[in-house]
Amino acid sequence: MSYLVLARKWRPVQFKEVLGQQHVTTTLENAIKSGRIANAYLFSGPRGVGKTTIARILAKAINCEKGPTITPCNQCSNCIEITESRSLDVFEIDGASNRGIDEVRNLRENLRYPPNKSRYKIYIIDEVHMLTVEAFNALLKTLEEPPKNVLFIFATTEPHKVPATISSRCQRFTFKRMSIKRIVEQLKKICDAEKIAIDEESLLTIAKKADGSMRDAESVLDQAFSFCGNEIKYENLIELLGIIDSDLLFELSDCIKTHDIQRALTLANNIFMEGYDVNEFLIHAAEHFRNILFTKATQSVAQLDVSEILAQRYLKEAAEFQEEDLLRYINLANETEYAIKRSSNPRLKFEFALAKMVKMDSSLKLSQLIERIDGLQRNFHPVSFEKAPISNYQPQIIKDQPAGRSQNRPQHLLLADRKSEILASFSPTVPDGPNQEVVPVENKNETQKVTMVDIETIQSSWELIIETIRKQKVALAAFINEGKPTAVDNNILEITFRNDNGFHINSIMNNKILIEKIINQIIGTPLHIKCVKGDLPMDNTTSITADTNINESAPVDRKINDTLIEEVVAAFDGEVIG
Question: Confidence band (pLDDT; 50, 70, 90) for 562?
Answer without folding.
Answer: low
